Each structure stands twice: as C-alpha cells, then as structure tokens.
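Bit of a strange request maybe. I'm writing a small parser for structure token strings and I need a real example to test against, not something I typed by hand. Could someone generate the tokens for this chain?
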Amino acid sequence: MPDGSVPSPRPRFRLAIVGGGIAGLTLAVTLGHYDDPAVPIEIHMYESGKEITTVGAGISVWPRTWGIMRQLGLFEDLSAAAVQPPEGSPEMKPGFVFRKSNQKEEGYEFARVLVPSGATTMHRADMVDVLVKHLPSSCTIHTSKRLLHYTESPKAGSDGNIVYTLHFADGTSTDADVIIGADGIKSKTRATMYEYAHQRDCLNATTVSKEECDRCKKATPKWTGTVAYRYLLPTDRMRAVNPEHYALKIKCPLSYSGKGKHVITYPISHGKYLNWIGFVTIPGGEGTTYPNRWVIDASQAELAEHFSGFEPEVDQMIQLVEKPHLWAIHEMEDLPFSVSGGVALMGDAVQAMRTHFGAGGGQAIEDAYILGRLLADKRTTSACVKDVLLVYQDARLPFGQRVVRNARQAGLMYEFNWPGLYDGFPPVAASPEEASKLEKQQLKELGDAIQKIWQWQWLERVEDVWEKAEKDYEALFSRRKDISNGVAAVVHRAKKPWSCVIM
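Reply from user aminoacidic:
Good idea to test on real output. This should exercise your parser:
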C-alpha cells in the first residue's frame, strides 16, 4: 500500500452469532483462541438486549466445563469468580446433597453425589463478565438487535452458495455467510430453519403446518409440567433466622426433596446469596401447553401453600422468599436436526433441558467449543462450511439429547416419581420402626441410582467428543477432489422427502 501499511487479510467468511449469552460468547472466545489471523473469520454478534447480560442467577460448573476453560485460557479468571475454586484433584467430593424434607419434623440427608473435586457454583453474571473480557478483537458486538427471521438467496458469482439476510425488530437487516443460532429456547433462528426445512422437505407442507408436522413440530419447545419459583436469598438474612441452617453449611447444590416437588439451594457471589429454586410438578402437565407467560411474578403465599407440610428448614427459607419469580420450565425434546445449510443451532436453541443436572450452561459451552474449533480451522471456507456444520451436528446433537433425557429422569428421581424406586409414601410394615428402616433402605437405593445417572459428568470426556469430531473433519477433507484453492468438493447428504403426519 502507498503508506507502507500491511492490508488486513481477507476474511474466509462472515459469521453471524445470534445471541450474546454464554453460548454465543463462548463460541466467539473459542474462535478467537483457535482462529488463524492470516485467514480470519469476520465475526458479528447480535444481541437482542441493550447490553450483554444474562438471564438467571446461579450456574454450576462441573469438571467437564473446567477442562474446556483451561483449554481456552479462562481457568484463572473464572476460578476467581467461583464460591469454591476447583482444586483439579481427582478426589471425590460432594457435588450434590439430597435431603428428605416432605414431613413436618426435621428432615435428614439420604444421598450425596460424589464428583471429582466437588461442585463449583457462581453467579451467571460473573461468568459472562469473564467471557466478555476474553472476546477477540475480530468480534463486533451489535446490541438491541432482536432477530425476527432470516431469508436465503443465492450468492452472486458463487456455485450454489447461499447468502443469509438477518432481519431485526428495529427494521434493519444484514447479510452473513453463516448463521449460528445461540438465541435460546425461543430461538427465532430455529423457527426460521424449520420453516424453510418444512417447506423444502415435507411432502404435505402445503396442507400441514410446521406445528402439526410429526417431524417439524419438535422445533416447538415442550412444557415439562414443572414450574420453578426463583429467588436470590441473602445469606445474612438466613443466618439471622437460623445460624445452623443446613443450606448455610453445604457449599454445593442441596435438594430438599418431597413428593412431586423439591427445593434447590446453593451459594453464589462468594457466598453472599443462596440461589433458591422451588420446583413444583403439576400432575398431567408434561407435554401440555403452558397457559400463562413463561416468566411471571409470584407471591410468597402461593409458594408457601405448595410446600405446606415440608420440614421446618423449608418453612424458614420461604419466610424470606418475599417476591419470587415463577418460571415455566420448557425443554427441547429430540430435535431432528440442528444444522441446515450454513445455519446451525447451539445451546438452549437445540438442547434446552430441565435444570436437574445443572448442565445447561455446560452443554452450551461444549457446543461452542466443538463448533468453534471446527470453524476456526483454516480449511473451513464458505464453500465447505455446510459440511463442517454437519460434522458438528453428528458430534454434539446425540450427546446433548441424551443429557436432556437423563435430566428428565433425574428430576423424577429427586421428587420420588421414578418407577421402581422410592415413591415418597410410607412403606407398609409391621411397626413404625420397621417402616422407618425400610424407608431409609429404599432411599439409599434411590441415592445409588442418582449417583449412577450423574456419572456421565466425569466418566465421559469432552475430549472423546472432540476426537470424534476431529476424526470426521479429517475424513471430510480426505474426500476432497480439489485442494488447490482450499475448496472442499464433497458429496452432500441427500435428503429424502418427509411425509408429514399429523399426530
């Protein structure tokens, strides 16, 4: 150039991340960590709010997630935000504690999930702050950009490539080569993806709506039948009521369990607050349409009514839960696909789950890590990105869906509703002493089952998921017919027409 400056390298493609939550931020950080500056990706993040923030209060960080944070260089900063920083020791320590509480007398502990290094909890906002701090300079953030939908059109001068136009609520629009929908359970990216797929793939699309199609209706979130009352409970107020309260002593998630309902508490913000969540399962509610807005204000009185008959410690906490918010818990159940062309979904947009593993944030981070590494490889170009996204889908979609299913089972266990295990009713026995002994035996069996269903958190490695993705990625490029310009000539998967069935 005339002034002697070096021109900026031309980006491989323009990437739009829809959503500035934990999923989208982690993707941007991963791309920045692994991207080749000589052949960069132009990253744009579109956040619907006026600033990058978060919904919800607490988050649990398990060993799987800490491993990714080490890889991304975030470990030290994130550890500083944790209530109990991870020790990195394989020693099994309490990660979740369960207490039988659906009786008027004092409850008792019946199970502990033991986890390598134990549990680590923190405020979600603290994690978001760490991620924002590590965003790469190649990422441009656009706030107040609420996506309505996107449209597809042929890219000028290309051989079959598509340009995606994102349309926002403020009347603006922008183009991208790739869209990553990290926009949560109410994802507009997912809704648009499935509308296009329904019109393109489903034989009866002209007469059967997306919401009625047996395949495409799974893109609509499902109510789990459970509502959650959420509140941030100051620990100094709890200490003033009962300085020996069990929730103040336990530094990991603690469940006060009862039949069809339970309370979860754990410390956040360096112990300043207890993240308090009261779960109530409505009989027959699962799979029905929730009748109200998903998040509304609730009253202390209705909360107290739900947990009437629970032990004194639960009553003491509810006395301090002055203005709870009621959340209707929804999930994504067996989404058929999470990728279509140059558009992919991640985090809650594809695998929103019940909170019973404390794994929603961790699974979003795993999505971001795997997807980010695949996209950051300099061989990934706009010509082959749709095939690379399918590698991501194959690696992550089945795993995430299994976690969704197991989280459902775990929640039923916590509320004494899983078939074949303790059911919350007093056992029939010859004497009260014998009934108590039998109940504790059944609760021990339940605790053993809970420990077993949790073991995926540390027995199954994120590295194994990445190794599968990396192997499939290498196989993809071994089939290239022409590598002269970094263009992958591969055979895309043929799609068979889908016959819509109204269920």
